[in-house]
Amino acid sequence: MKSLRLLLIICLIFFLNIPVNAARNTDSYDGNIFPIYAGNGSIVPPQTSLKESLINERVAVLFFYLDDNAPSKALAPIISGIDLIWKNNIDIIALTTDELQDKIFNKKNEEGYYWNGLIPQTVILDGTGEIKYDKNGLIDIDEVNKVISGIKGIDYQNTFSVESFNEYNSTISKTND
């Protein structure tokens, strides 16, 4: 009886193999967008909270998104690139807006306080919690790097671009002058 059950399971696996399709340009749910479209699953869940970031007076990049939103999927490689460029010098706090819906945030140390209700939204805060950048939709990585550089007091001269290396994933590369 066990061998018959095992044979049935094996047949189901091989004969009912349904392909799974991810689509970056649709509002379909494909799973967590960072490992799928940016190749960087370490961004979520965030490694720190906004409260901790403000206590430590660190630059925080808040990214509000949904996994089933085409513009959020397109922006995931850029957020991952910012993480790659700045490594441990800033805090990237990527949050799905599902848990922020229908809640009121009154404190500046709460991530939801900065969300304007639209996605995707990228907000950059200096170490005191002052908004230095707030934009909905696609963002330019060089513009974001200039803002972060200005906050950190670093002269910014590099330019980066997002390059797709297959249908689903992209990478950040330095633009050659």
Radius of gyration: 20 Å
Total number of helices: 5
Quick one: CATH superfamily? Answer: Glutaredoxin
Strand order of the largest sheet: 2-1-3-4
Please state the second-level CATH architecture: 3-Layer(aba) Sandwich
Order of helices and strands: HHHEHEEEHEE
The name of the CATH topology is Glutaredoxin
Strand residue percentage: 15-25%
Globally, the shape reads elongated
Structural class: alpha+beta
Secondary structure tally: strands: 6
The profile of the biggest β sheet is: 4 strands, mixed
Residue share in helix = 25-40%
Query: pLDDT below 50 for ≥5 consecutive residues: which ranges?
Result: none
CATH first level: Alpha Beta
Summed up, the domain count is 1
Overview of the structural elements:
By secondary structure, the chain is α+β, with helices and mostly antiparallel strands. The protein has one domain: 3-Layer(aba) Sandwich (Glutaredoxin), CATH 3.40.30.10. The chain is built from 5 helices and 6 strands; from the N terminus they run H-H-H-E-H-E-E-E-H-E-E. A 4-stranded mixed β-sheet has the order 2-1-3-4. Strands 5-6 form a two-stranded antiparallel sheet.
